[in-house]
Amino acid sequence: MSITSKLSGFDSSSSSADARVQKYKEVIEKIFVDKDTDNALKIVEHVVQDSFPQVVARDIMNIFAKAFDHLQNDQVLELGEATLELISDKNMLEEEECIIRREVASVHQARKDFSDAAKCLMKIKLENTVRNIDPKEKSEILVSIAENWFSEDDAVNAEIYLNKATHVILDVEDEEINTRYRYCKAKVFDSKRKFVFAAQAYYELSSFEGSAIEEDNKFLLLKNAITCAVLAPVGPQKSRILTTLTKDERSKNCPNYEMLERMFNDKVINKKLSQEFESTLEEHQKATGSDGHSILETSVLEHNISVVSNIYTTISFEGLGTFLGISKSNAEKLISNMVIQGRISAILDQRSEIIEFEKNEREKLSIWNEQIGVLCNDVNTVLSKILKEFPEAENYIAQ
């Protein structure tokens, strides 16, 4: 007996709806175990007919959608895509469509066809649906789309879907989804060279107390945070994240700590240290700007200009160029951009080619306080270690 005749027999019987669904379930289970995708598709064609009772059709298709794990990847794609063509316009089957799309997308993802995976998931109805979608499911789908776009080197689309996830993920307590969201966001910031935001995002993940991130991975995230903080443009936001990272005792174990420490303490960065640091960068972090300088070179030059501003009251364009090891004109362009963007206080006299640095006392005091705070924390850490080793020393401290 053909599958169509068997199904028609179920429909013509006087059985209850539940008994009818049970008969379909037994057939579906056997077909999927046998990996008979041709007959599986015939079931879909049969139950999506307009004459078929919608409630029964939904129950049958729900069983059908959840049986895909019996199939091999090629069969998931073949049957999944054929099924989606038949049900994508059926509002009553939105949940079943979602289940199948996620199965198909997982195969595309396993094959590194990330664009196809993202496009498949994007067709899942998440707004104005006939079914209730809880924030966890919605967030997971949006984050998955973002992850696939990012894996396809499309940070623009990845950011779009991360922003959509932002509106719903606040209501989600699931550690894994939150961690995936925050990690993808950090990677997107990093990729788009929003290094201050990337550093903050990486650092938050490295400090995460849940079990979703292993300690070794936290160390790598901290290292990424330091790298992005170093690459960030000079300014108050960079100063704050440098302070946060320097205060963290774990940073001292990172291979890029020396660069972090020198930047935080306003010390000149030399070429040797810069080259050592560059060897640790990822390819997108080595990009060169229109001025011919790499991201790191620009960051180091701006940092050294900031150091100069703390040493000198005035300096010539020529003198600044000599100090930085670049031409006079390049030095002028760099500091001009910093002044225009409000990242350094200075007056440039074009006629006499002199730079006069304006001392922002409030900003200097803030940085000084932060540095004093770090020093005090270091002293307290040393003191705690001494007291742990020599408890009797507390009597002398009390005096």
From TrEMBL:
Limits of the PCI domain: 194-362
Domain of life per record: Eukaryota
Pfam family, any one: PSMD12-CSN4_N
GO CC, one annotated term: cytosol
Alphabetical list of SUPFAM superfamilies matching this protein: Winged helix' DNA-binding domain
Location (main, coarse): cytoplasm
Claim: Cell cycle is one of the keywords in the record: no
Location(s) in or outside the cell: Cytoplasm; Nucleus
The name this protein goes by in its record: COP9 signalosome complex subunit 4
Source organism (scientific name): Euplotes crassus
